[in-house]
Amino acid sequence: MHNAESAAVLGNPTEQIGGPAAAATLLAAAVEGRRLRTPLRRKEQNVLVAADYPFLDVLWTMFIFFIWIIWFFLLFRVIVDIFRRHDISGGKKALWLVFVILLPFLGVFVYLIANSDDIAQRDARGAQQAQQEFDTYVKSVAGGGAAAEIDKAKQLLDSGAITQQEFDAIKAKALAT
Fold it and tell me: Exposed (0-12), middle (13-18) or buried (19+): which is 174, by Cβ within 10 Å?
């Protein structure tokens, strides 16, 4: 058997085997006890090289990734706002949550349209409360300044813990700083 089929069986890579010829070649090789040295079909591997990915495709991919991140940020923001609300009951919170989870795009946009003013008011109240807590903390740590020192010294003077001379010294020191 010295034709094209035997050349392919023996390993000639220039011959392509396909269809009925492939079955006959395999049968002939099995009868003669030989093994095929070349695969019947060659697999092509597509390797993505940076040169094969155009610049506009890179920009488009970055844009899509950016929109995807914004979407998740918005989704979680709405879910947090649903749980943070005190003006609706647990049943309404559950309904909003089911709506947002089952129909995410529609649910999020409907929630934003229906509650945008309330969201802004809750954010403003939260920021105001955080600012007040911070101011209270700073005042408690800072001690209140010269007026607070003079007031404390006056209380000590009135209680008899310090003398008038000590009070004057504390007052002068507080006013000097």
Answer: middle
- DSSP secondary structure, 78-113, as one string: HHHHHHH-SSS-HHHHHHHHHHHHHSHHHHHHHHHH
Amino acid at 76: F
pTM over 0.70? The answer is no
Structure tokens at 44: 């092509």
Amino acid identity, residue 63? F
Q: How far is CA 135 from CA 106, 122, 128, 141, in A?
A: 41, 20, 11, 10
Looking at the chain, which runs of residues are DSSP E strands?
none
Place of tokens 């706002």: 81
Look at residue 118 and tell me whether its pLDDT is greater than 50.
yes
How far is it, in rounded angstroms, from Cα 176 to Cα 169?
Answer: 11
Side-chain half-sphere CA neighbours of 107 within 13 A: 20
Give the closest residue to 36 by CA, choosing from 16, 6, 14: 6
Q: Which amino acid belongs to residue 103? A: L
- pLDDT tens digits, 52-92: 788 899 999 999 999 999 999 999 999 999 999 999 999 99
The full length of the chain comes to 177
> Around Cβ 112, how many Cβ atoms within 10 Å?
14
Residue 151: name the closest of 171, 125, 169 by CA: 171
